[in-house]
């Protein structure tokens, strides 16, 4: 990039990054049957004025639907948190998690297994929430410690639950990926399999509500974590990769090796950035019979570039390769500008800190350069299975709906675009906080597509 436009470019890019924090979904094409058409509005904060804190609170309290959080406990914890303060967030959620971990232990010791199980599930969620904003220092020992307590507590809950399951290790390159295999029963019968994966900032324990809903509907369910996610980044130190087909293939190979899996009836569901990862994998994996992108994500770099070009000035004639090439030089002016924005905005801080953590990037520029490789341009058309592209009308990660629409437009397979309005609170990212509407509409599509009884 020519030095003469660097300053203008940096200022323009900085403004765009603050306004467009991530790639998500929205489109007015088709409303889900669970939510009638209304004007698109941003949901008011439930507890916090800070948008990122408000969304993460909604994400946590939404687990109440499956009994893995409780509204009163969440509200009481939130009331003690200082707005926008990451340390306060950690301390209060950690205290709540410890409280209900201890309560579960006491219940188990007294022989109250169900009460212990329920307390453990809630504590696991609260530990996971506590750890969420710690990634600004990748060497902070609390990351692995708190994540480890969340997983341990979740596994203690699973051990007391009635749903058959197995903790599995999936062969991957020269290591393994962690997973949970949930079963309808212990019969060993070959059944339809639903594979569910998380995205940019999730752990697979958070996918438990999806697994439970799948089991209720007759699916065996496999969840897993790949590079950049959960245990794989925290313990194995393996960062994200854009060519996710090299992750999905070994996962599917493992799945079909199990007698409980009907190899002709495998569905794949990607959550959040999984709305890019899952279709990327499905494009090269003929064993996928149905795909849910939740929400649809088409091209991170193209979306960023389009916004820059619309800003005019020196950036108007920039190409995607110009942007990528400049970011790869790790320009100090870009990093300084982003770090200044991070100091002033919680969402920008979280996005860049977590991005550097999960990509093992040493600076914001290195993170963005790597993230720009996440593209389905020239790939989406290779997907052959029926595909559901989801979107939320109040999804603050992409309020213009560019990504879901672009993915839908570039699919050549059987496809459906399902947009959730916010009339009854289902318009947020991944419909978090509205599992009843979300599961009803998405699983009904999946049941119809896979020929399930539901």
Gross CATH architecture of the largest domain: 3-Layer(aba) Sandwich
Helicity level: 40-55%
Number of E-type strands: 8
Q: Which structural class best describes the helix and strand composition? A: alpha/beta
Q: Mean pLDDT, nearest integer? A: 90
And the CATH topology of the largest domain? Rossmann fold
The low-confidence runs, each spanning 5 or more residues with pLDDT under 50, are: 18-45
Record the SSE blueprint.
Elements: H1 6-19, H2 51-61, H3 71-79, H4 86-109, H5 113-131, H6 141-160, E1 165-172, E2 175-182, E3 191-197, H7 208-216, E4 220-224, H8 230-234, H9 245-256, E5 261-271, H10 274-282, E6 290-294, H11 300-310, H12 320-328, H13 332-344, H14 346-358, H15 364-371, E7 387-392, H16 402-410, E8 415-420, H17 435-450
Parallel strand pairs: 3-4, 3-5, 5-6, 6-7, 7-8
Antiparallel strand pairs: 1-2, 2-4
Helix pairs in contact: 1-13, 4-5, 5-6, 9-10, 12-15, 13-14, 14-15
